[in-house]
Write a structure and sequence with these properties.
This protein is α/β, with parallel strands linked by helices. Strands 1, 2, 6, 7, 8, 9, 10, 11, 12 and 13 form a 10-stranded mixed β-sheet that branches. A 3-stranded mixed β-sheet has the order 4-3-5, with no helix packed on it.
């Protein structure tokens, strides 16, 4: 991949209003598609805002009527605001686009970042983002039997956010009753239009996580939210994390050799038949 350019839009007292950053993304996206600029990553903090991906359900939105910005990325609802580092990598990928591979590269850069600060993180099977795993649950009697009640807490059964494409040896099993509450440290939700990525990731550095209490974050009801500061037990600032994230994004993305997603002959024929139409892919992930 070509050299990655970083653009800082605003932090702290200069935190950026969400719609303003969204329009900036559109402008950069158009310029990247036209090859007027190189691959570019916008980095910023947002003013407090809830954003909802296309699959957000009404029951996951704030119950108190707090406004929500509906966006064109994949996934469900999340919060952005002070203490959270947000990145929008706007990159040109080969077609047909491999969205999952792009998500994995972003996860890798964020996992390396957390490791450098001393926080052990991982991927979780079927779910995007970067996670701190909960402690193992003690062994307990098997449910069922006479007078017993058998419940299936496996999120793979009814959780619409569980994506089987996000499986593999890099991923820990989903916490289907195996662990206490897993905690999400970084969120990922992207969109690909005309072969160029939009939206991206957010890392919880030292936000007020009570903002997440008003919603069902990312539509996931069996996991929690955490931050680097909480896991470390002392305060960490976005300014301290910013250069580390940049370095690992550069290492991972510039050294990557993105390849087109494997497509069968029928898909190739359909792509040729639809030539000229805007190609879009929405990630199964969420920001």
């Amino acid at each position: 991949m070509s050299e990655l350019r970083f653009v800082h839009l605003g932090f702290g007292g200069d935190a950026v209003e969400y719609r303003e950053a969204w329009q900036r993304q559109r402008d950069v996206h158009a310029a990247r598609f036209a090859d007027e600029i190189p691959d570019t990553c916008l980095l910023l903090e947002h003013q407090p805002v809830y954003t909802a991906g296309r699959r957000t359900q009404d029951s996951e939105r704030p119950l108190d009527g707090t406004p929500v910005v509906d966006v064109d990325r994949g996934g469900k609802i999340t919060w952005h605001g002070p203490g959270q580092l947000v990145g929008y990598p706007i990159l040109k990928l080969p077609r047909p686009v491999d969205v999952v591979a792009h998500v994995r590269r972003l996860e890798e850069a964020l996992i390396r970042t957390a490791t450098e600060f001393g926080v052990a993180t991982t991927r979780v099977e079927g779910r995007s983002g970067v996670w701190v795993l909960g402690d193992p649950v003690e062994e307990r009697p098997s449910p069922g039997g006479a007078g017993g009640l058998s419940l299936d807490f496996d999120p793979r059964v009814n959780d619409g956010e569980f994506d089987p494409r996000l499986n593999g040896p890099e991923y820990a099993p989903s916490n289907a009753g195996q662990r206490r509450e897993d905690r999400k440290l970084a969120q990922i939700g992207i969109r690909v239009a005309k072969g160029v990525t939009m939206h991206g990731f957010s890392v919880n550095v030292n936000p007020d996580n009570t903002w997440f209490d008003r919603i069902v974050p990312c539509g996931i009801r069996d996991a929690g939210v955490t931050s680097l500061s909480y896991e470390l037990g002392h305060d960490l600032t976005v300014a301290e994390v910013l250069p580390v994230v940049e370095r690992h994004l550069r290492d991972v993305l510039e050294q990557a050799e993105p390849k087109p997603r494997e497509a069968d002959a029928q898909a190739e024929a359909g792509a040729e038949a639809g030539a000229g139409a805007e190609a879009r892919a929405v990630a199964p992930a969420r920001a």
